[in-house]
């Protein structure tokens, strides 16, 4: 372990002994681990390159989920709000979170070889979510991959303001319930990017869909779609991936995979170490990376339950928004940016 790793481990041990939450991020003085591991794996297992490329069934899967969710919304046009909330949490949330992660997949152009087709499919997948985010998400998410943990660039990391406010079980519970708001609004406050042509296309198509739902089926149908988005992004099993992916629960590890059954509903985003190592491999083939090169992943900590991750995050006094790995902007990073 290098000098930076020793500092991280000492800091974590000190916080565990004191039983208090960190007051700063964990600062790494090495590059993010995925690029170097990718080179090592490809030098040893070049056949992994055969896994590169899109999921040919992605368009079909997205279409089925979009149509099912919009159809469900029409059925609830005159339902009571309690029924709408119940169905949104136990059914619609799974569909909209599936679409959110479909948009994640499409941000890596993993449905079609032609990028613009992925963009159109992403805008289509966005429809039941209710809030236009597909195009903007791609802009920030690709930076998360290129500059993982880099201060001021990686907007996946909570802000100092969030970390200062979220310091106990109650605050962490509220933060988890509202984490989708923080996730969506954080980059707009910390690193706003001017909207481009495609963001306006995303916006206008989304407004047209929302207005159509309200006009033909009423506010309850639209409310079902919005509730499905936000309850599914809060205190919900599928939303555990927001925390599990990069929150530091173990010294010297900043990305964690999840190998549980919800991968079937989330485009296998749980294979997160594998995804960051090989972002050009579609989710339905990421498990093959672990099968081909098991020695690179078997000694890494991983999870089998996203619900357990949420519970650990809330109840562990040493874990909070500061439990993320950060690194300074380097000269190389500035050139890349």
TrEMBL record:
Q: What is its main location?
A: endoplasmic reticulum
Query: What is catalyzed by this enzyme?
Result: an N-acylsphinganine + 2 Fe(II)-[cytochrome b5] + O2 + 2 H(+) = an N-acylsphing-4-enine + 2 Fe(III)-[cytochrome b5] + 2 H2O
Q: Which GO terms describe its cellular component?
A: endoplasmic reticulum membrane
- A UniProt-annotated Pfam family: FA_desaturase
Identify the keywords attached in UniProt to this record, alphabetized. Answer: Endoplasmic reticulum, Lipid metabolism, Membrane, Oxidoreductase, Transmembrane, Transmembrane helix
Q: What is its EC number?
A: 1.14.19.17
User: Which residues are in the Sphingolipid delta4-desaturase N-terminal domain?
Assistant: 20-58
Cross-referenced InterPro entries: DES1/DES2, FA_desaturase_dom, Sphingolipid_d4-desaturase_N
What top-level class of enzyme does the UniProt entry assign? oxidoreductase
Q: How does it sit in the membrane?
A: Multi-pass membrane protein
Compartments, record wording? Endoplasmic reticulum membrane; Membrane
* Similarity-based family: Belongs to the fatty acid desaturase type 1 family. DEGS subfamily.
Q: Which PANTHER family match?
A: SPHINGOLIPID DELTA 4 DESATURASE/C-4 HYDROXYLASE PROTEIN DES2 (PTHR12879), SPHINGOLIPID DELTA(4)-DESATURASE DES1 (PTHR12879:SF8)
Record's function text: Sphingolipid-delta-4-desaturase required for the biosynthesis of delta-4-unsaturated sphingolipids and derivatives.
Q: What name goes with this protein?
A: Sphingolipid delta(4)-desaturase DES1-like
């Amino acid at each position: 372990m290098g000098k930076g790793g020793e500092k991280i481990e000492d800091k974590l041990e000190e916080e565990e002994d004191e039983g208090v939450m960190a007051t700063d991020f964990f600062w790494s003085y090495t590059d993010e681990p995925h690029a170097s591991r990718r080179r090592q794996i490809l030098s040893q297992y070049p056949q992994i390159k055969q896994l590169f490329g899109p999921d040919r069934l992605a368009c079909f899967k997205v279409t089925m989920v979009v149509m099912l969710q919009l159809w469900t919304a029409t059925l609830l046009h005159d339902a009571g709000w309690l029924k709408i909330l119940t169905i949104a949490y136990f059914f619609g949330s799974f569909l909209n979170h599936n679409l959110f992660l479909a948009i994640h997949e499409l941000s890596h152009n993993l449905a079609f070889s032609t990028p613009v087709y992925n963009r159109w499919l992403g805008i289509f997948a966005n429809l039941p979510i209710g809030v236009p985010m597909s195009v903007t998400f791609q802009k920030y998410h690709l930076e998360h991959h290129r500059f993982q943990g880099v201060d001021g660039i990686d907007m996946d990391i909570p802000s100092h303001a969030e970390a200062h406010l979220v310091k106990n079980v109650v605050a962490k519970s509220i933060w988890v319930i509202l984490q989708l708001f923080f996730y969506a609004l954080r980059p707009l406050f910390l690193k706003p990017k001017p909207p481009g042509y495609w963001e306006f296309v995303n916006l206008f198509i989304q407004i047209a869909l929302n207005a159509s739902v309200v006009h033909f089926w009423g506010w309850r149908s639209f409310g079902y779609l919005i509730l499905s988005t936000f309850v599914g992004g809060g205190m919900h099993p599928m939303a555990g991936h927001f925390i599990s992916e990069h929150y530091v629960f173990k010294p010297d590890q900043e990305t964690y995979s999840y190998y549980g059954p919800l991968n079937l509903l989330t485009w296998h985003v749980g294979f997160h170490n594998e995804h960051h190592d090989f972002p050009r491999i579609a989710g339905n083939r990421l498990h093959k990376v672990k099968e081909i090169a098991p020695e690179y992943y078997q000694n890494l900590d991983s999870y089998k339950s996203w619900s357990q991750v949420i519970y650990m995050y809330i109840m562990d006094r040493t874990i909070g928004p500061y439990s993320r790995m950060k690194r300074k902007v380097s000269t190389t990073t500035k050139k890349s940016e």
